[in-house]
Inverse folding.
């Protein structure tokens, strides 16, 4: 009869006690497995969310972390804004000049208006369109004189050659589900967001229904929107429904519902990213919402602090100051550059070498607001606005967040669960200890039958190890099964699929030993060695079992046969 | 087969004083010989059996089993010797509750150098009349049956000497004789020397050789002499 069998019989004999020990052990191990898997999930989803498909976030100066949190995770307060010209600095010649021409037309009309007002004020009646012609002429002169040195229309954006794309986003508004407390962040952007951004591993946005909005949408004009999967699911909105967005965070000071209706054109498939919780609206429509028009102080002396309707009316080339435009017509007039602001630009840098160096080279000129070779900034923006931007590297920021928050949390959880394991290891000890009296008699009998001290010691250790292994295996299977059972939920929430055999990610598990190991080459190799901590679980438990088994083993070793036989 | 010379045993009391318990000038058993050891409670019968079994080391003297001096052996060697050459039947049976009858007998072979043979264990249980209860747990057996399992276990390793310490003291009267008969019969069949301790005179009377420990133990005899 082997020592294994003897130990097994002893476990069987203490059926309930052994079972409880194994269960408490299994629960501890299950928790450790869960913590490891959750941690694996968090880091995997962190990593999949940080292969963003862009390398730089350009946004207002201030906390880089705040900018990243709001642009990547749509978390936190709205940050300050930067001038729209930063976006144009990344655009090709055509886009850029179109935008500026719109602005020029707007300016021209303002000039025209001023001329008309000036003529009106000296009470000279305009005859037969004569004054209008004069005004138009003046405006034309103005344009010809200035358009090139102001805007250098024939130039590409200063940074356009160095980037794959730059996508503008505007944050700060929310969509609150009707008759509910729940709300989602609104992100105003353009079509590029869906066409050019990738969601980790090169995945693209996909539609569950409907379509993406076009920048100038035949159906919805500027007022189309696309809902993230969770936003759509929770609000129950369908393609074709219309929604209103709230300025700011619902229920907080200064927040109010905008009247403007946006039409839901599409609903996204779940992405497992924060995008699922966002309502994307067409940036052009967003700009046209009444109080999104930024009043701009003009250094040229032109006061653009005008009523929005008037300003927009003026943007129409064939508009006369006194003409009435319907709301519908108004809503087709794009806001000029000067009145546009952005929360952030998501920039994918063209980087042939692939070392992320190109992104670094861009950082300085962007932060210095050094657009003067292609733009006469001073005509558009106060000096302050010209140096208002900063670049952050989202990957770095996210990794920093990860290191600051996720890693310590993991260690705390691991420490806790290790404690649980130690406690359940102690439960083995307690179980054996409580039966020690009876055991001592059994040990004495075995000794009388010729068992050596080493035999009875090994039997005790074997028993502890068997209990630990049973608990460990059961707990591991339980933890894994739990993971698989929960995987549909987890996948929906994080986009990360979980399978039974997905071990917690590899880590330099022996790094904690580095102070003990010294500095030899071999020690360095051990410290760098990576494996899944999960694979250490069972061996760890066996070591634990041996440790807690040592006490009963020693007590077995010391049993006085002659005395204990009499008991 | 068994040869003791000048075996003395004194226990050290907690206060440090030594209390002599046993002092035997000579004691021997021939191969296959059967002897009964009697004497009042406390005269050192169990202690003597423990010394012979190598469980307790004598304070001085020589113990030879099968011609081998065991007192100088290490404990582990004595353990091995005990497993191979000695069988022990206890007053309280000392079957292990976790194991079936068959397993208890096999356990007698687990620590010896020979190979454990379940055929041997079955055969022994057959011989003590328990062929039908191989897989029964001790708890489900009568005291008579339990002691018969213990006898089978003590014989499992084909020992040279069987030590039986009041084997019938806890067995119901109806079964006492059967147990004694089983022990004696099996020892005779296997050529095992038997040293049986008992209080029961009707048991002692059945033996040709009856040793009174209170007489041959010089510690007890001297105390009596003084008294
Ligand atoms: N480990 C021990 N320590 C001290 N005294 C002991 C020990 N074992 C036995 N004795 C004493 O030795 C004497 C003989 O005991 P024992 O051999 O059990 O007697 P018997 O079996 O004849 O009744 C008793 O007085 C007992 O108290
Ligand atoms: Mg006794």
């Amino acid at each position: 009869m082997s020592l294994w069998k003897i130990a097994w019989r002893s476990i069987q004999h203490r059926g309930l006690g052994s079972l409880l020990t194994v269960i408490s052990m299994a629960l501890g191990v299950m928790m450790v497995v869960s913590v490891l898997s959750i941690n694996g999930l968090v880091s995997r989803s962190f990593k999949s969310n940080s292969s963003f498909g862009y390398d730089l976030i350009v946004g207002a100066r201030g906390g880089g972390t705040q900018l990243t949190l709001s642009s990547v995770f749509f978390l936190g307060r709205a940050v300050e804004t930067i001038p729209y010209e930063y976006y144009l600095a990344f655009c090709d010649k055509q886009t850029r000049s179109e935008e500026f021409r719109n602005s020029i037309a707007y300016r021209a009309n303002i000039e025209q208006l001023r001329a008309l007002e000036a003529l009106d004020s000296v009470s000279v009646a305009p005859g037969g369109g004569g004054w209008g012609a004069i005004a138009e002429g003046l405006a034309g002169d103005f344009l010809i004189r200035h358009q090139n040195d102001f805007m250098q229309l024939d130039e590409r954006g200063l940074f356009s050659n160095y980037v794959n794309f730059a996508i503008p986003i505007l944050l700060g508004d929310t969509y609150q589900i009707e008759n509910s407390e729940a709300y989602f962040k609104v992100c105003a952007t353009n079509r590029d967001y869906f066409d050019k951004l990738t969601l980790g591993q090169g995945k693209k946005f996909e539609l569950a229904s409907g379509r993406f909005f076009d920048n100038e949408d035949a159906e919805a004009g500027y007022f189309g929107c696309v809902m993230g999967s969770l936003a759509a699911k929770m609000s129950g909105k369908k393609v074709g429904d219309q929604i209103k967005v709230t300025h700011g965070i619902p229920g907080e000071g200064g927040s109010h519902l905008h009247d403007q209706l946006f039409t839901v054109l599409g609903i996204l498939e779940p992405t497992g990213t924060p995008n699922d919780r966002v309502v994307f609206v067409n940036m052009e429509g967003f700009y046209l919402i009444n109080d999104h028009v930024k009043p701009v102080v003009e250094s040229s002396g032109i006061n653009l602090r005008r009523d929005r309707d008037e300003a927009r009316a003026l943007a129409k080339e064939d508009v006369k100051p006194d003409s009435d435009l319907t709301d519908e017509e108004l809503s087709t007039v794009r806001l000029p550059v000067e009145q546009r602001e952005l929360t952030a630009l998501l920039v994918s840098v063209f980087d042939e070498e692939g070392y992320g160096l190109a992104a670094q080279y861009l950082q300085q000129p962007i932060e210095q607001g050094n657009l003067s070779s292609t733009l006469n900034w001073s005509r558009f923006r106060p000096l302050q606005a010209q140096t208002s931007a900063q670049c952050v590297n989202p990957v770095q920021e996210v990794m920093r967040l990860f290191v600051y928050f996720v890693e310590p949390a993991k260690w705390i959880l691991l420490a806790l669960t290790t404690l649980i394991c130690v406690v359940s290891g102690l439960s083995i000890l307690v179980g054996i200890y409580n039966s020690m009296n009876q055991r001592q008699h059994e040990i004495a009998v075995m000794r009388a039958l010729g068992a050596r001290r080493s035999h009875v010691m090994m039997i005790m250790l074997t028993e502890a190890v068997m209990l630990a292994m049973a608990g460990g295996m059961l707990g591991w299977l339980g933890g894994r099964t739990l993971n698989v059972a929960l995987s549909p939920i987890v996948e929906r929430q994080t986009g990360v699929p979980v399978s039974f055999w997905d071990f917690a990610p590899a880590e330099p598990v022996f790094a904690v030993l580095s102070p003990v190991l010294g500095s030899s080459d071999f020690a360095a190799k051990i410290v760098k060695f990576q494996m899944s901590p999960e694979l250490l679980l069972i061996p760890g438990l066996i070591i634990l079992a041996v440790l807690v088994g040592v006490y009963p083993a020693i007590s077995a070793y010391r049993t006085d046969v002659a005395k204990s036989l009499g008991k | 087969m068994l040869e003791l010379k000048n075996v003395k045993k004194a226990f050290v009391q907690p206060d440090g004083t030594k209390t002599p318990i046993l002092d035997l000038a000579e004691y021997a058993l021939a191969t296959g010989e059967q002897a009964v050891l009697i004497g009042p409670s406390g005269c050192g019968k169990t202690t003597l059996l423990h010394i012979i079994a190598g469980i307790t080391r004598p304070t001085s003297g020589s113990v030879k089993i099968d011609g081998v001096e065991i007192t100088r052996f290490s404990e582990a060697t004595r353990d091995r010797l005990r497993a191979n050459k000695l069988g022990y039947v206890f007053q309280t049976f000392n079957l292990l509750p976790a194991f079936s009858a068959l397993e208890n007998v096999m356990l007698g072979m687990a620590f010896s150098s020979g190979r454990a043979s379940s055929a041997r264990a079955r055969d022994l249980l057959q011989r003590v009349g328990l062929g039908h209860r191989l897989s029964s747990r001790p708890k489900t057996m009568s005291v008579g049956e339990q002691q018969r399992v213990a006898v089978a276990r003590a014989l499992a390793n084909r020992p040279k000497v069987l030590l039986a310490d009041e084997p019938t003291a806890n067995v119901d009267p109806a079964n006492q004789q059967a147990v004694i008969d089983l022990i004696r019969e099996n020892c005779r069949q296997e050529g095992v020397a038997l040293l049986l301790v008992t209080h029961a005179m009707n048991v002692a009377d059945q033996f040709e050789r009856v040793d009174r420990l209170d007489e041959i133990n010089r510690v007890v005899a001297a105390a009596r002499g003084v008294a």
User: Anything to note?
Assistant: The CA atoms of residues 58 and 163 of chain A lie 13 Å apart. Residues 453-494 of chain A form the longest helix (42 residues). The longest strand of chain A covers residues 256-268. Residues 104-150 of chain A form one domain.
